[in-house]
Automatic annotation (TrEMBL):
<dbReference type="Pfam" id="PF02630">
    <property type="entry name" value="SCO1-SenC"/>
</dbReference>
<dbReference type="InterPro" id="IPR036249">
    <property type="entry name" value="Thioredoxin-like_sf"/>
</dbReference>
<comment type="similarity">
    <text>Belongs to the SCO1/2 family.</text>
</comment>
<dbReference type="InterPro" id="IPR003782">
    <property type="entry name" value="SCO1/SenC"/>
</dbReference>
<protein>
    <recommendedName>
        <fullName>Thioredoxin domain-containing protein</fullName>
    </recommendedName>
</protein>
Amino acid sequence: MNGRQKNSRQLSLRSLLSTYKPLPQALLAGVFFAILIFTSCDNQNHLAGTKLSNHKGYSYSLLDHGGKVVTNSSRKSTITVLTFMFTRCTDVCPIVTSTIRTALRNGLEDEKVQVHIITVDPEQDTPEAAIQFVEKWNLPSNWSFISGKEQDLRPIWNSYFVNPVNSNGNSKSGVASLKSAMDRRYKVIHTAPVFVLDRDGIARVLHTNPIDPIQLARDIEIIGSR
């Protein structure tokens, strides 16, 4: 093989290598972008709160503050935000109420989300007290404050891991009874979890304090899009 033939063969080999060299780079780039897109989609559908697997809470059908019958699966077109409070609560309840309101202002339409507040103090939360609570906070029409008899509410509390306790104890005799008669502002110790229920009334995600309204709003949107 003379020098001219050798040089020609080297040039051909270099040309061949230059032709196939970009292929692995393009392939790697494609894999990279596929992973990036998949990760982005996964992040968009990732629930910020505690994900619940097939948690179907106790089904309820009760009257709200306006005398309307509401259930945890009454409207297939809506998502339900469920929480537990009492009208005279001065600590966690105002914070949770404000957080939910802020979350629902982030582009969520009222007709697509209903908010159910179930009392943890049915003895004191009369229909009148419930109406005053709703008016005090200027809550819109898609909010329902729900009260009733303790025997009807306790199965709901239990199924959603809520265990309200009267700080004066269950017994109101003697001095405790006299104090209770003079001052009805006893404190109810409770948790205020916020559940997001899908259109079938199944709780899909749980938020507990401190609750980020932006994360809550995003979880509502994710559940609503499924």
